[in-house]
Specification:
Order of helices and strands: EEHHEHHH
Number of helices: 5
Number of domains: 1
Strand order of the largest sheet: 2-1-3
Structural class: mainly alpha
Number of strands: 3
Largest sheet: 3 strands, mixed
Shape: globular
């Protein structure tokens, strides 16, 4: 089960993660199989650790951790939505932290 920001729960839906990844990787030439492998590794980690409930924030962090090794531009795109930066300074700090 996934716990959303408002506290409601819904069934884990890998397609929602895929949709976010597809938006983040537009024009980045990243194969779909790479994105599927990324999602598979998240599902495996949750299953292997016996986690039956996870927050959307934790899922987002898991995606970002893996996406950083795949493509930094896609990472920044995904992070810009997931982290909901309040201003340009927060966004700039994230970029500086990546050492792009």
């Amino acid at each position: 089960m996934v716990i959303k920001k408002d506290g409601t729960k819904e069934t884990f839906d890998r397609q929602k993660i895929m949709n976010g990844l597809l938006r983040a990787t537009v024009k980045r030439n990243i194969p779909i199989r790479t994105l599927n492998t990324l999602i598979d590794s998240i599902e495996s980690e949750l299953r292997d650790n016996g986690i039956s409930e996870v927050s959307t924030q934790e899922i987002g962090s898991m995606v970002l951790k893996r996406l950083l090794t795949v493509d930094k531009v896609a990472y920044v795109r995904f992070a810009s939505v997931y982290r909901d930066y309040k201003d340009v300074d927060e966004f700039s700090a994230e970029l500086r932290g990546l050492s792009l």
